[in-house]
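Please, does this match?
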Amino acid sequence: MHIVAVGLNYKTTPVELRECFAMEEERLPEALKMMKQSCSILEGVVVATCNRTEIYAVVDQHQVCTNDIQSFMADWFRVPVDKFKEHLYMHTDMNAVEHLFRVTTGLDSMVLGETQILGQVKDAFLTAQQHGATGTMFNELFKEAVTLAKRAQSETAISENAVSVSYAAVELGKRIFGSFENKKTLIVGAGKMSELTLKHMQASGSSYIYVANRTLERAQTLAASVNGIALTLEQMDQVLSDVDIVISSTGSNGYVVMKEQIQEAMKKRRTRPMFLIDIAVPRDLDPHINELDNVFLYDIDDLQGIVAGNLALRQQEAQKIERMIEEEMTTFEHWYQTLEVVPIIRALQQKATDIHAETLESLFNKLPDLDERERKIIHKLTKSIVNQLLHDPIAHVKDMAQERRGKEAMDLFTSMFALEEPLATLEHDKIKAQDAAAGQSAGSNASSALNRLRAITRI
């Protein structure tokens, strides 16, 4: 088995292409189902955030799977492969494990050490687990990744001195205006990013704040926390000419503010400048807004320079986390190698058990006068001999699996004890069990569908 991570992120892909790969949270289960059906994968997790879309998979052949994943991404997101293939990266086996650890700890984020990604990865894993897309490998790996990230946050200062995207947006505004005193701000969207932005704005001295959102109730809740004014998106035009700063972060699939709206607002502002920053992916603000005089539009990619100036401490702390990752990788690799040897150990034990059972049956047939007590004593003593003989080989094969050439050692061990047939039998039984479980699930789904149909016909 192999672990692969295939994806694109802010390092490899421009925002205008990244936004094509935005994943709606409610459609994630459907995407996981389609991916497992169309790709040669055994386990899978999809991590989709504003700065990355990554697919983690357990596969038999990683090269074949990579091609399948590319096809899946093209079909699901409706983007031709040749448009995004050059931006994709792929990590395999322990490199994939290291990449996941770096992602969860925030070392691979645009904002070094940011903590939001941990929750996003955890939610992605739990969704995959709940929908049967994970198994032994990923249940262990993602648990280790989440635990490591929590350790990194508690044992280092990586998350101190705020340098989040929302903080960078506020810093950029301060560079342009010098001070937010007497400046009016419009926050578009009422999600987590907008909430963080509001906190930074308030801490920087902004006291005139509007919050516009598709759902008025959510806007009212957020606005109330800063004594602001809540609006619907339709009411936004009423205040655009009055605000100096617009920061937008919604989950919309299309532009929320168009060039024509800002153009109309600027007629009333005359020469007073307006600062707009788009921290959403897909983008909320029409890029053509930047063509207007006295209007300054920035998107999420423009924030990297701001962030860079606040990273000295975090980069020092990141070195500590790098060492944590190295230790965790060693631990996981040992677990992984032990996992690989489990079927061999089971096959050896099964073969020994079968030989023991056949030998006892032959012995008891030749000694029919033995009573039940004598048979039990013989069974116990001969079983003890078998277990003692197996103890050292099993201990040695576990150690061999963790060596540099562990695969060759396990192949030799399998050949020495002639375990090919027992291994094949165990694999066959495993497949039968999986097929039975899948059939039971399909039967349950069919029964559920039949019940729904009966309900409809009764109506």
The CA atoms of residues 74 and 82 lie 9 Å apart. The chain has 17 helices and ten strands. Strands lie at 2-9, 41-48, 52-59, 89-92, 184-188, 208-213, 229-232, 245-248, 274-278, 295-299. The first helix runs from residue 15 to 18.
